[in-house]
Amino acid sequence: MRLKLVSENRENYMPFLLLADEEGMIRKYLYEGEMFAIMLEDQTVGVVLFLPENSQVVELKNIALAPEYRGKGYGKAVITESIKLLRKKGYHKVIVGTANSSIENLAFYQKAGFRIYGIKQDFFLQYPEPIYENGIQAVDMVMFEMKIGN
């Protein structure tokens, strides 16, 4: 598994991005930050996109793997490789948010070493359509952080 910087034609990765977020929201950040294609050999199997908050904090805005590659350790490998790149860029902390209803994501981020640090109440109420996962409405965003440097 390797990460390949995507510098143009980000629209081509929309099918992957849509696995993790709603199109209207994606369009707000699609051309910001750094996007990487997740590559297995010569095949793109997902994407990861980071947006800097400031010179020390970066947000993991979107990470998505094709369904057939989930649960096999690739997501955690992406986090590990990403952290190496982010440390080299001088970041000290990575943050990420996910819905209160995203049970699998809540487990994934904690297993990957992130810790809960806050809740953005009513965040998902701004989406045009209600989102339901696991029989739960996505209402609040659970925020995680991982310290990666001094």
Description:
It is a single chain. The protein is α+β, with helices and mostly antiparallel strands and 150 residues long. It has a single domain, classed as Gcn5-related N-acetyltransferase (GNAT) (Aminopeptidase). It is built from 4 helices and 9 strands, in the order E-H-H-E-E-E-H-E-H-E-E-E-E. Strand 3 and strand 4 form a beta hairpin. The chain is globular, with a radius of gyration of 15 Å. The mean pLDDT is 95.
Any descriptors?
about 150 residues; alpha+beta; Aminopeptidase; 7-stranded mixed beta sheet; two-stranded antiparallel sheet; 4 helices; 9 strands; about 25% helix; N-acetyltransferase YvbK; EC 2.3.1.-; Acyl_CoA_acyltransferase; acyltransferase
Strand content: 35-45%
Structural class: alpha+beta
Proper CATH architecture: 3-Layer(aba) Sandwich
Highest-level CATH class:
Alpha Beta
Q: What does the overall shape look like? A: globular
Average per-residue pLDDT, rounded, comes to 95
CATH fold title: Aminopeptidase
The helix count comes to 4
Q: How many domains?
A: 1
Helicity, as a percent range: 10-25%
Order of helices and strands: EHHEEEHEHEEEE
List the helices and strands and how they pair.
Blueprint: E1 2-6, H1 14-17, H2 23-29, E2 34-40, E3 43-52, E4 57-65, H3 74-88, E5 93-99, H4 103-111, E6 115-120, E7 132-133, E8 136-137, E9 141-147
Parallel strand pairs: 4-5
Antiparallel strand pairs: 1-2, 2-3, 3-4, 5-9, 6-9, 7-8
